[in-house]
Design a protein that fits this description.
The structure holds three protein chains of three kinds. Chain A is of the alpha/beta class. Chain A is about 30% helix and about 25% strand. In chain A, β4 and β5 form a beta hairpin. In chain A, α6 (about 160-170) runs parallel beside α7 (about 190-205). Chain A starts with 5 loop residues before the first strand and ends in a 15-residue tail after the last strand. Chain C has a single domain (about 35-315), classed as Orthogonal Bundle (MetI-like fold), CATH 1.10.3720.10. Chain C is about 70% helix and about 0% strand. Classes of the chains: A alpha/beta, B mainly alpha, C mainly alpha. At the B-C interface, α1, α6, α7, α10 and α11 of B face α7, α11, α12 and α13 of C.
Amino acid sequence: MAEPLLSVRDLIVEFPTRRGTLRALDKVSFDIQEGEVLGMVGESGAGKSITGAAIIGLIEPPGRIAGGEIWLRGQRIDNLSPEAMRRIRGKRIGMVFQDPLTSLNPLYTVAQQLIETIRTHMDISEKAARARAVALLDRVGIPAAARRIDDYPHHFSGGMRQRVVIALALCAEPELVLADEPTTALDVSVQAQIIDVLKEICAERGAAVMLITHDMGVIAETADRVAVLYAGRLAEIGPVREVITAAEHPYTQGLMGSIPTLTQTSDRLVQIPGSMPRLNAIPQGCAFNPRCPKVFDRCRVDRPEAIDRGGRRRVACWLYDGVKQEAGNV
Amino acid sequence: MLAFIIRRVLQSVLVMLVVALVSFSLFRFVGDPISSMVGQEASIADRAALRDALGLNDPFLIQFARFVGDAVQGNFGISYRLQQPVMELIMSRLPATLELALVSGIVAFIFGVGFGVYTALRRKGWASNTIMTVSLIGVSLPTFLIGVLLIWVFAVELQWLPSFGRGEVVSVGSWWRTGFLTHSGRLSLILPAITLGLYQMTLIMRLVRAEMLEVLRTDYIKFARARGLTNRAVHFGHALKNTMVPVITITGLQLGSIIAFAIITETVFQWPGVGALFINSVRFVDVPVMAAYLMLIALIFVVINLIVDLLYYAVDPRLRVDRAKTRH
Amino acid sequence: MSDKTQIPAPRSWMFRAWDSDVAYSFRTSPVAIVAGAVSLLIILLAVLAPWIAPHNPYDPSSLNLMDGFTPPMEPNAFTGNVYWLGTDNQGRDIFSTLLYGARISLFVGFAAVLFAMVLGISAGLAAGYRGGWVDSLLMRVADVQLSFPSILIALLIFGVARGFIPPAYRETMAIWVLIVAIGLSDWVQYARVVRGATMVEKNKEYVQAARVIGAHPLKILVRHILPNVMGPVLVIATIGLALAIIAEATLSFLGVGVPPTQPSLGTLIRIGQQYLFSGEWWILLFPSLTLLALALAVNLLGDWLRDALNPRLR
């Protein structure tokens, strides 16, 4: 396989607090291929957003990357100088935030914010930048873009604002777009449209997407592969269809069981008993062991490493240690 | 826009009327105007005649209306203590106070915003810690003590600067006497301006710092960073502009309090302004001067408030739209 | 599963107080510890002034005019007496006047804060709980008052009160007038905070429930709503104490505060200022330093408390 666009290796992110250091991410590894859409799922606090912040180099202090490496197309980016990292943000990695109502500066017009961003990364004239901005707004589906570009953010509805945010994230043609719950704050009726716009434009420009969400439905429709995080650790990763139809990690199985649209055969939603441990009280061994229906002794002692299951699937569970993937399961 | 201005002006007039009522009540009910005016030896008949002549026996509302009418024309009666028309006294002393307030206001604003931004951006550095510590001492030091200590160091020990008065003043126009145009006038202004400005500066600085830290935490700043904008653009383009919206309001109001705080500075430096006039009127219960000063300060506050509102309106596009919507 | 989780034994309240976030933040903040110690020291010295002070500055018979203008730690030229911090123009021991001065400053400060607090909390509870015209009226007054500096308000109230009090009583009443004037100039902050919290709290279900079962509104206010606002009120009161001490000193310095026969720190500075040019610096310096230390320490405590109770700012 070709060199991946983004490669995250054993990433550890820590937050020092007065009651000890919290590990928000604990040895997370995954790749994103050129043009691929990777879904990132997990409960709140599982470390999805932290992963995004770590990749783009914007972890809020006192949090810090305490270990591991992040490579972007063969260049290591987790230890770059602030200025070098700034040049990558926007230009090579774009980011879409959750709440379009708060992610645009209310005191500047859309045009000002777009042109500023474009001219930060591209050496073009104000006029050319403006033309580019109008075209981009038009592409993300803002009607009468040439006129509306001089409006302030509060003139737009939530869905329209998120289109503006997408335009801003993509205006310097990044190779990778991190979308952190891009539809959570929107009306259900416009969620699908926003996801479609995001996916289409990225596909058009060959940009890969890391889509962070807790909505498995969105993942199922959008992503090529999916990574499941639990308590700051990677539980399972693999092609989206395989993970959904044949989840291997007991946590993923529980997660799938809790989605109504995907489990038509069962008339009851399955619920995982208990809740995700707090980061200061992660149990020894597998983080999921107190809730796991298939737990056995080893799970309470040793932490499972990600086990390669073939076909780009990996799962961090002792159930599969030394077990060959059963053929015909997929 | 017009409707907004009209509404604000009407509100201001209302506030002025309330203050006028307080002023008038002071004038009418605090002490006895007659005995303050004529002294002990006047006979009862004389007093009654004067009372009648002054209209003190008229109904309250008529007296109040007369007071407001006089006040609008700048007539606040005669000072009990100095036996001069109050308006003349105030006008002759107003330039001194306004010049002092203007200079300290500008100094306080420039340094307040500068230090506030610096300490917000460099939260941990030694310079920030020093500025923050000094500012805390600045807040805890009463204005008068700053003045006294400055006099001690720069006037008594070093003998660099004068310790009292305005120095030489020059007439500009018919009644404005300025100290800006002479060397001694400018020298005399330095210590009082620092004294008056220091406290305001610390307030502005702490406000700017707090607002800026708040703004730096917002999503749109994070998003601006995530788009790879330079620190310069994020800090001074985005964060500072958003910080200034609330800062303008409060700083504008501070300008009013500078004039009020001038009372203390003027006393310490024997600065011949309206503040010193007022403090003496309080000491000697010189009610007409107290009432006039109150009206003057209220007028200044109301005008500043109005200007600040309009400024606010100009800076924040959200307000413009909200007003437009409510009008429909 | 649940039988395995252990419920920790309840700890004593002393442990919980020690272990609380606020106490932790105090223990780990050298500034807070020093500020607390300085405040406590000055308060103790002031309270115990009659027992500690070497002289009673209010007792003219204990004064010797010959002792006037003695520099600190030097024997007086005529009497040979040595005073720690020197003496003033009337031969009063500066150290003693400081103790008594701080006593008056602190008394006025605490009393004014208490007055402002009671007034502000009552107004805030009434405005928040009753709403309607009570609320509009109180908040309008508060708005107007807030737009004027409190020192100006205090001066005006002081001036008005003096107008009403016959000259013969002005001296003896001065200190009470001062307390009321400073208190009245500073109630708005409390009222605002309490009003906000009351409006939030009164719509919560437990308050509604208490209403339904017919609890007296006063009881609801005191039992349920008041405890929720004590944190911010404490912060305001601490910073308010510093402000009240400064306000008192300022008014006394301006010559409209406590009478010279009962000098507070502000009065002492006013007296000291007159001797600056003739070189008797100690008369000015020591009261100034005391006032600064007191105001700074209380301010620092207030600042720290605000940060400790507001985790967002950490």
